[in-house]
Design a protein that fits this description.
single chain, mainly beta, 6-stranded mixed sheet
Length: 274
């Protein structure tokens, strides 16, 4: 059971390079690898502001989804210092499952548009001064940590940006629209945490389905799920291991499950006792 840290991922990648390859990689600047900027977006009828982070990656490079997987580097966002901002919700488009038959990771290549929905703290009609520190990993044969400062003054105006609208249309299907009949989770203690078995009464999403479990607490390590399907029932098993390395209290409503198939992706928030 692998528990990669950022340092171990970078070290392993660097050691795997030949001297010639490593030398060629050092000739690249960060601007050659990835460009990150802010799309200002528009104010919604609900009083929130829909903007986006645009990441443009060089050919052959990738970055990662909110859950990076065993071999990826999860992104981090810090909005400290922003004004008239109470909440930021990222609407993640469906990622690619990289290396599905090996150590899986989840992410994007090419140009990535991450819609961010900003909720004003004081005035829905007022300006939002956005101050963001974005930390992502970008990988080819070597992984490079990239830290970017994004600042923007977002007015109560603007027309819909087609690129943001298109990304919003690439979201996973919510469970209530995917004919999910039930989602039950059985929880059992293991020596260093918990084992969770989810039974999802859900139509097949096509092909071999990959299941991802997530918790709000990103310090809890999550194993790659093992899944099997029998008719309309998809069963997936994973282990949750906290930093303390011991069983812990877990609220089933906090468990987020994403089912990836060749014909669709379903987002399930919470499960009941199984």
């Amino acid at each position: 059971m692998l528990k990669h840290s950022l340092i171990s991922v970078l070290t392993a990648a660097l050691l795997a390079l030949s001297p010639a390859t490593a030398s060629a990689q050092r000739l690249l600047s960060l601007d050659d690898i990835a460009k990150v900027d802010l799309l200002s977006g528009w104010r919604t009828p609900q009083g929130t502001h829909m903007a986006a982070i645009r990441i443009q990656l060089a050919d052959g490079w990738k970055t990662y989804w909110r859950f990076a997987g065993e071999s990826g580097i999860a992104p981090q966002f810090d909005w400290t210092g922003s004004q008239n901002l109470s909440q930021v919700d990222i609407h993640w488009p469906i990622p690619t499952v990289f290396d599905p038959d090996a150590s899986r990771s989840y992410g994007y290549n090419g140009t990535v548009i991450l819609p961010i929905e900003l909720t004003p703290a004081h005035s829905a009609n007022g300006t939002i001064s956005l101050h963001g520190q974005i930390n992502i990993g970008v990988c080819e044969e070597v992984c490079v940590p990239l830290s970017v400062q994004l600042d923007g003054v977002l007015q109560n105006s603007g027309s819909k940006d087609p690129a943001i609208v298109a990304s919003l249309g690439q979201q996973p299907t919510p469970a209530n629209l995917a004919n999910l009949r039930s989602a039950e989770c059985a929880i059992a203690p293991i020596s260093d945490g918990l084992q969770v078995t989810a039974k999802l009464n859900l139509p097949s999403q096509g092909g071999h389905e990959t299941v991802v479990f997530e918790l709000p607490d990103r310090a809890v390590w999550v194993d790659e799920a093992r899944s099997t399907r029998k008719g309309g029932l998809l069963t997936a098993v994973t282990d949750f291991v906290p930093p303390a390395g011991a069983p812990f209290l877990l609220n089933r409503s906090d468990i987020r499950i994403t089912v990836f198939g060749s014909g669709g992706v379903v987002d399930i928030q919470g499960c009941t006792a199984g």
